[in-house]
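anyone seen this seq b4? input:
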Amino acid sequence: MAPKDKFNIGATSALKDSTMAQWLASPISGDLKDVPGIGPAGIEKFKANGIQNTYQLIGQFLLYKGDDLNTQDHLDLFYKWLADIGISAHRAGVVWSVAEKVSTFLPGLINKDDLDPSDS
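predicted toks r here
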C-alpha cells in the first residue's frame, strides 16, 4: 500500500480531546455529523456512496475486519476506502473516531501495539 493509503495515528492530532471524549461518551445517534472529522462535504460524499448514517459507517468499518488482519491493516483498509470515496480532509481522524467508538462496545477490536510506530 502506498504511504497515502496508510492510516497514520499521528495524523489524528486535529482531533480535540474534548471532542473525542464527548463522541466516546455519547450514544450513537445515527447522525454522521456527530462523528469527529465529518463535516457537510463529507456527509454528502458518504451519502453519495450509500452511507446514510453512523450505523452504516460503523458497518462499513467492520466489513474490513478480517481474522487474519492486525489493527494497522484493518485501519489501512478503512482509510483507503475513505480515500476511494473522496474523503480527504480529516480522514485519519474519522478512522480513529470510528475505531475508538467501536472498541467501546467491542473491546479488543483495536490493539494499539499493532500500529506502525514509524507512522506516529
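The radius of gyration is 13 Å. Helices lie at 17-25, 40-48, 54-63, 71-84, 91-105. kinda curious what u guys think
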